[in-house]
Design a protein that fits this description.
It is found in: Membrane. Belongs to the NlpA lipoprotein family. Its main location: membrane. It comes from Sulfurospirillum diekertiae. Keywords: Lipoprotein, Membrane, Palmitate, Signal. The protein is of the alpha/beta class. The chain folds into 2 domains: about 160 residues, D-Maltodextrin-Binding Protein, domain 2 (3-Layer(aba) Sandwich); about 100 residues, Periplasmic binding protein-like II (D-Maltodextrin-Binding Protein, domain 2, 3-Layer(aba) Sandwich), CATH 3.40.190. The chain is about 35% helix and about 20% strand. The strands form 3 sheets. A 5-stranded mixed sheet has the order 2-1-3-12-4, sandwiched between helices. Strands 9-6-10-5-11 form a 5-stranded mixed sheet. Helix 2 runs antiparallel to helix 8. It is globular, with a radius of gyration of 23 Å. The termini are far apart.
C-alpha cells in the first residue's frame, strides 16, 4: 500500500468514526432524564409531555429527588436534562447563590401552597398561641410569610421586599403564632404535632393532604412552577421540543381533563390566554 492509498484509508476511517460518534451522541440525546420532587409533577411529565415527546422519538426517564437542592445540582452537572419542581424565584436565587447557569424554559400548571390543620377547619378558627410550620428555604419562607400576611395572620415590615422576608421581619403577629421553619419536605409530617402547617402543593399531594387545605393561595405568576434547563442548552433541539409539546393542544387538553388532578392546578398566564 503506497502512502496515498494509506492516507485515503485513514481519511475514510476518521470520517466513519465521526459519523458513528455523532450518531451515538444524537441517540443519547433522545433519552431524556427529567428531575422532579415528590408529588404530581412526575405524573404531569409522564402523562402530558412524555407521550408527545415519544412521538418525536424520545424516551423519558423520571428521576425523583427528596429535596429542593439536588435537582438543580444534578441539572448543572448534566446528570439530568431538565427538571420540574420549582418556581422562577427559587431558580434565580439558587442559581445565583451556587453560580450555576440554569434558565426557566416555560411555566406549567401548578398546585399552590395551602394552609393545613387537623385542629382547625378555617383560618377564623385559629387560636392564639397556635404552632405553625413552614418551609425554611429563603424563597419559599418568604412566599409563605407573604401568604400568611395576605390572609391576615401576620404583618411584615412594609419597607422589606416581601420576596426576601424572613420570620425576623414579622412586625405584627396578633395570634402570637409560634412559627417553626423546617425543610419543605417535612412540613406535611408535622401535622400530628403542630396546629397549622403551610405546605407546598407537591408535598401536600404526595402526602395525601392536598384536598384537606383550609385555605389555598392564589399563586403570583412568579411562583408558578417552571421547567428548568441548562442555559447553554436553550437552543438545543430537545429543549425546543419540550417547549413545543408544552405549548401544544394535547398538553392543554390533559391539563383541563376533569378526570385528572391537574384540572385543579392554577394555570400560568400564557395557558389561560390560550384556553380562553
Amino acid at each position: 500500500m503506497n502512502l496515498k492509498q494509506w492516507k485515503s484509508k485513514v481519511s475514510i476511517w476518521i470520517a466513519a468514526l465521526f459519523i458513528f460518534t455523532a450518531g451515538n451522541a444524537f441517540a443519547e440525546n433522545k433519552h431524556l432524564i427529567i428531575g422532579i420532587s415528590p408529588g404530581p409533577y412526575g405524573d404531569l411529565f409522564k402523562q402530558a409531555i412524555a407521550p408527545s415527546l415519544a412521538q418525536k422519538g424520545y424516551t423519558v426517564e423520571i428521576k425523583e429527588f427528596s429535596d429542593y437542592v439536588q435537582p438543580n445540582l444534578a441539572l448543572a452537572n448534566k446528570s439530568i436534562d431538565a427538571n420540574l419542581f420549582q418556581h422562577p424565584m427559587y431558580l434565580k436565587k439558587f442559581a445565583a447563590d451556587k453560580g450555576l447557569k440554569l434558565s426557566a424554559l416555560i411555566s406549567v400548571p401548578t398546585a399552590g401552597v395551602g394552609i393545613y390543620s387537623k385542629k382547625y377547619k378555617s383560618i377564623a378558627d385559629i387560636k392564639e398561641g397556635s404552632s405553625l410550620t413552614l418551609a425554611n428555604d429563603p424563597t419559599n419562607l418568604a412566599r409563605a410569610l407573604r401568604y400568611l400576611q395576605a390572609v391576615g395572620l401576620i404583618k411584615i415590615k412594609p419597607e422589606i421586599d416581601a420576596t426576601k422576608a424572613s420570620e425576623k421581619d414579622i412586625v405584627e403577629n396578633p395570634k402570637k403564632l409560634k412559627i417553626h421553619p423546617l425543610e419543605a419536605a417535612q412540613i406535611p409530617r408535622t401535622l400530628d404535632s403542630v396546629d397549622i402547617a403551610v405546605a407546598s402543593g407537591n408535598y401536600a399531594i404526595s402526602s395525601g393532604i392536598y384536598p384537606t387545605a383550609i385555605d389555598r393561595e392564589i399563586i403570583p405568576e412568579d411562583y408558578i412552577n417552571v421547567i428548568a434547563v441548562r442555559t447553554d442548552d436553550l437552543d438545543a433541539q430537545y429543549v425546543k421540543d419540550i417547549k413545543e409539546v408544552v405549548e401544544s393542544e394535547a398538553f392543554a387538553n390533559i391539563m383541563s381533563d376533569p378526570a385528572k388532578i391537574f384540572k385543579d392546578f392554577q394555570k400560568p398566564a400564557w395557558l389561560k390566554a390560550k384556553t380562553k
